[in-house]
Amino acid sequence: MPRLVARHHEINRQLLEELQRAGGPGLDVQDLPPEEASWTLAEAETDVALVSPLFFGKRESDVALLGGACVAAVGATGEWRLHFHGGLRSIGTVGYFGNGGIAVILAEILLKEKYGMSPRMQKLPMPDDTHSAQVLFDTLDAIVTTDDTQRAGLSAPGFIDLIDEWFDMTQLPLVREVFIGWESRLDVTIDAAVHAAGLAADAAALQHVEEKLQGRGVESELELLPAHFRYRFTEDVIEGLQTFFHLAFAHGLHRDIPDLVFWSEEESSDREGVRA
C-alpha cells in the first residue's frame, strides 16, 4: 500500500481529499507536522510526501518531483507577514520562529531584491508565557510570522504580506508545497492519482475565483485578481518556482538551483536500465 504524508491544513485539504478519492482505499494518507513529514521522507519511511520545495532543492539527486499537483499561492493570502515598527527607513534585524523555511527565505529575498536591504536574520524561541511575540518583536526591527498563533498578542503598526509582495515583484505564483517521492517506489498509478487530484482541486479553486469576481467593476486585471491558491504545475507556477530558486541562489540563501525535472515512467525506466 503506497504511503503519503503531509501536514493537513485548510489550504491543501481539498487537494488531499481529491488525492484520497483518486488513489482509493489502497492509498494511505497520513497527517504529520511539516518537519516530521520531511524527516519521514528523508528516512524513506514513506513513499511520497507533500512538503516544502526546499526539500527537493536539497535532495534532488535522491528523490523525484511529481508534476501532477502542487500548492501555490497568488496575492495577499494573509498568512506570511513581515511586521515592522512604524517610521523605520531601513530594516537591520529580522526575527523568525522555528526553523524558518521558505517563508523566511522569501522575506530575505524580498528585502534584498526589492528594497535593497540586507538584514541579519535571527531565530527566535516560540512565543509562550515567558517570551511573548510582542516582547521578542520589541528587540528587533521586524519579525516574520506564518500563522495566527505566532501573531497572538503582537501589536505592530505595519506589515507587508510576503506572498503579495512576491507577486507584485515577479507577477508569478509562490509555490509552497510539492509532491516528492522515492523514484523506485513511484509508478503510473500514484502519478495518475496526483494528476487527477491536481486537476480537480485547481478547477474548484478557479471556480471560487470566478465567484469572487462576479459583480466587480472594470478594474485592471491585476486589481481584479483576488488572492487565491493554485494546485497544478502550470507554466507560470513552474516559472514561479524556478524564479524563487534562482533568486535564493543569487542571494546566497540556497546552495544551488535544482533542475525541475518531473517523474515519468519513461525516464524512470531509462535510469533503471542505466543502473542495471
Short account of what is shown:
Helix content is 42%, strand content 20%. The protein is built from eleven helices and eleven strands. The protein has helices spanning 13-23, 34-42, 53-59, 102-113, 133-138, 148-151, 162-170, 188-213, 221-224, 235-250, 265-275, and strands at 3-6, 28-31, 48-51, 64-74, 81-84, 93-97, 120-124, 142-145, 158-161, 174-181, 228-230.
The portion of residues assigned to helices is 40-55%
Q: Mean pLDDT, nearest integer?
A: 90
Spatial strand arrangement across the major sheet: 2-1-3-10-4-11
Number of helices: 11
Report what the structure shows.
- This protein has 276 residues and is α/β, with parallel strands linked by helices.
- It is 42% helix and 20% strand.
- The protein contains eleven helices and eleven strands.
- It has helices spanning 13-23, 34-42, 53-59, 102-113, 133-138, 148-151, 162-170, 188-213, 221-224, 235-250, 265-275; strands at 3-6, 28-31, 48-51, 64-74, 81-84, 93-97, 120-124, 142-145, 158-161, 174-181, 228-230.
- The strands form two sheets. The chain has a six-stranded mixed β-sheet.
- Helix 4 links the parallel strand 6 and strand 7.
- Helix 1 (13-23) packs across helix 8 (188-213) and helix 4 (102-113) packs across helix 7 (162-170).
- The longest helix has 26 residues, at 188-213.
- It is globular.
- The relative contact order is 0.19.
- Mean pLDDT is 90; it is low at 218-222.
